[in-house]
Amino acid sequence: QVQLVESGGGLVQAGSSLRLSCAASGRTFSWVTIGWFRQAPGKEREFVAGTSWSGGVTYYADSVKGRFTVSRDNAKNTAYLQMNGLKPEDTAVYYCATSRTGVPIATTRDEYDYWGQGTQVTVSS
Q: How far apart are CA 21 and CA 5, in angstroms?
């Protein structure tokens, strides 16, 4: 079992930045892929970004490429999603999740095993 807890969400204006954190406990965190997903009201949960177990491989959805950066600190059992240049369309609940699929980075919900409870990000125009 892996327990994941997201934090760092909030209400910001367009153009602002936020950094989300995903703190893990339980089974080994270091050997899994970490993915970030988001779900807006009335929409499907979608892949945002992911990082391999070492942090050496990352992958981003086209909608956030160049604005978001995913990273991890295995010594702290924590992953991060730095979000810059936020837009109103980034408004959603953001989730982190773990996957054992390695590389290439998994991008579908079915490939992820454990999920956090989510953190709300709201971007006003």
A: 8
- Whether 83 and 36 have beta carbons less than 8 Å apart is answered as no
What is residue 102's predicted lDDT score, i.e. its pLDDT?
86
Residue 57, Cβ density class (10 Å: 0-12 exposed, 13-18 middle, ≥19 buried):
middle
The closest alpha carbon to 94, from 1, 22, 24, belongs to 22
pLDDT band at 90 (very low <50, low <70, confident <90, very high): very high
CB of 94 closer than 8 Å to CB of 121: yes
Nearest alpha carbon to residue 2 among 42, 29, 34 = 29
Q: Quote the pLDDT of residue 26.
A: 78
